[in-house]
Amino acid sequence: MKVAITLLVVLALANAGMVQKFPLTYGGKRSIMNIMVEVENKIKAHSPLDTIKGVLDNFKSAVAQEQGTHDEVYGAQKAECESEIAYRRAEVEDATGTLKIANGILKTANILLKKTQATLGETENILNTVSQHIGLINDARKEDTQSYNRGAVTFNDAINAIDDSLDLAAALAKGGASLIQVAEMTTKLMKASVATKMNKAFMAPLAALSQITQEEDSVGAAERLAQLLQTLRTNVEEAWASYTAENTNALALFTQQKDLYLASQVRLDESKGRLSSKAENLQGVISVQTAVAQAATNKRQRNQTLWDDAADLCHSFDVEYEAVTAGRRQELVLVQELERLAERRAAEQQ
Fold first, then answer.
1. What percent of the chain has pLDDT over 70?
2. Between 20 and 30 A from 343 (CA), which of 63, 96, 171, 245?
3. Other residues' Cβ atoms within 10 Å of the Cβ of residue 188
4. How far is it between the farthest Cα atoms of the chain?
5. What whole-number distance in Å separates Cα of residue 232 and Cα of residue 228?
6. For the CA atoms of the chain, what is the radius of gyration?
7. How far apart are CA 324 and CA 322, in angstroms?
């Protein structure tokens, strides 16, 4: 027994070394060493096994509670890090896009300084390209809207089919439905399943509907069918809501893209007007765009640095979580060993 306790002490010391390597404010109100001493004293005092297990169970509960709290903290840390990284990534991409546009305008402006008429032709070509992009965006959105409308009809038809099936289930419970009605409703649900691409969700209600005429307890079978159909209706409504949310996001992105192209179109129109009237104004355009490019470069560098810092911080959270969690696992291993030693000693004392 003494040798076994000595081995546990060695393991406990190794576990303490891991906690010191990653100093954290966890486990401050408990000590595996104290628990080991307490258990050893109770074993020597021939305390009941249930008493010893109670001590160990309290320790395990404390470990589990602490792990749960750490899991919540770690989850919040991860969410915050991911949000920050996503924001910095977007800022870098925005600055890169702005820089690309600014450099393009700078190049065009320098060409315009040398040959105004040729540059005016290039500007008109760019305007045409932007107009084509705006047209393409409008066409794509029109296509998306039509697709969404078709999807809305599909989901609506599916819900109507489910509602009709619920009515049929109620009729079946009262014995007022025919095999033909069951077959027709099965066909409707199968079509809705294929149209919504929710075959898995429709599987259980379709199976229940196909077997309902073979059930001895028709009332019970009809009630189970109604429950499955109600669950299916909820799933279809959730899918519809998700589909609508995706369409809303797509609409916001479309508006953003269109605004960007419209803004570019306005700038190019103004440049064309200035070039047509006086070539000297091009120097002002070059100065402005140089400042924009510099600001975009600074913004990109600053946000890239913050992005890298956030990534490093997230990694440190991961390292901390894994290290402390490993320490708790080791504590639980030690507790299990103590429990086995207690059980062995209790068996020897019988």
1. 88
2. 63
3. 18
4. 109
5. 6
6. 35
7. 6
The secondary structure of 50-83, three-state, reads: HHHHHHHHHHHHHHHHHHHHHHHHHHHHHHHHHH
Give the whole-angstrom CA distance, residue 318 versus residue 229.
44
**Rounded to an integer, what distance in angstroms lies between the CA atom of residue 290 and that of residue 105?**
9
Tens-place pLDDT, residues 73-109? 999 988 998 999 999 999 999 999 999 999 998 887 7
> What distance in Å separates the CA atoms of residue 338 and residue 11, rounded to the nearest whole number?
12
What are the structure tokens assigned to 254, written together?
A: 């479309």
Buried b or exposed e, range 151-162, using 16+ CB within 10 angstroms: beebbeebbebb
| Nearest Cα residue to 14 out of 326, 342, 336 | 326
Cα angle 341, 343, 349; round to 5: 105
Q: What tokens appear for 269 in the block?
A: 């129109």
**Integer CA distances (angstroms), 318 to 321, 323, 325, in order:** 5, 8, 10
Span 41-67, pLDDT tens digits: 888 878 888 888 888 888 888 888 998
CA distance 262 to 133: 10
Q: Name residues whose C-beta falls within 8 Å of residue 105's C-beta, 6 or more positions apart in sequence.
A: 267, 271, 285, 289
CB proximity list for 129: less than 8 A, separation 6 or greater: none
pLDDT, one tens digit per residue, over 13-27 is: 433 433 433 334 454
